[in-house]
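Researcher: Here's the sequence for the chain we discussed earlier.
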Amino acid sequence: MTELEKTMLINENMTIEDAMRVIDQGISKTVFLVSDYVLKGSMTDGDVRRHLLKGGALNESVCKIINYSPKFFKENDSANYQDYMIENDLTAIPIVDNQMKIIRIERLKNNKESIRKIEESIPVVIMAGGFGSRLKPYTEIIPKPLIPIGSKTILERIFDKFEEYGCYKKYVIINYKKKLIEAYFKEDSSYSDLYFIEEPSFLGTAGGIKYTKGVCRDNFFVTNCDVVIDTDYYFIWEEHKKKGNIMTMVLANREYCVPYGTVEISDNGNVICLCEKPRVEYKVNTGMYLCNAKLLDYIDDSEKIDMPELIQRCLNAGEKIGQVTIDGNDWYDMGQLDELEKMKKRYGTI
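Model: Thanks. This is the structure I predict for it:
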């Protein structure tokens, strides 16, 4: 489970008021009662309202109103979670293993009512100057930011996601086929506070951020132009602010299945055990960050630098870099052809 999903969990020692506070401060109108991550029940804000209308009190035990027959899916079930939640009027549903331990929690996408707006006016910097080499031959004709995903370009989908959370000011770093990108958006006045910054030459995946100095004075998001992160941006901002990071990286859990049987060997050369097609889980960089303006001091003017080098430079200087880990299913990376198809399936009909 991710840290974000853990904010949806409650325990039997809580009062109804405690549980309601979890709902108010959380990412969903539903919370789940657990014991050592084993699913026991569920509760919604509607359950609380019905309890109060019947004359119940907030200081009573949460067990008084828990639904001890919650809906859930097993990890190997083949189901369309989104359709199921819509049909059953749910905002979230847990996915459990054979011991009923929650592995992750699926949430209803585009549930506008549950979105918490970021109070500060946080600008967004989109790195859109790359050549899109992994998407050739498409990008030899059209720049990567303008590749359509359904009825909109990838860049428009990124804009839409940030605007859901109140982030309207957008700075797009452009280089390759920059005139095409600018011309496309000049014809569309629906996006407010949109500014283009032209790199004089390609400055890597991080160098162009320096050109926002003076306009990004406090905290600001940075994202690659080929990823859509379908998670709670408010939670990222909250964690970043609370921990005082110079940068908060957004990571994703990704599982890789080794296509062969692996063998473990002892020090004396004997076979200890065999594991057929093991699965290995990694935390990978999604290409989205929440940064403090102090980060810009670690980039020289007109310097060509990639993000990994910039991050290491900050770490070497003793700066604090945090992370928020999301479910791998909430990260759509258009940078590779197979992932592009996955993104089209998610957004293609919108």
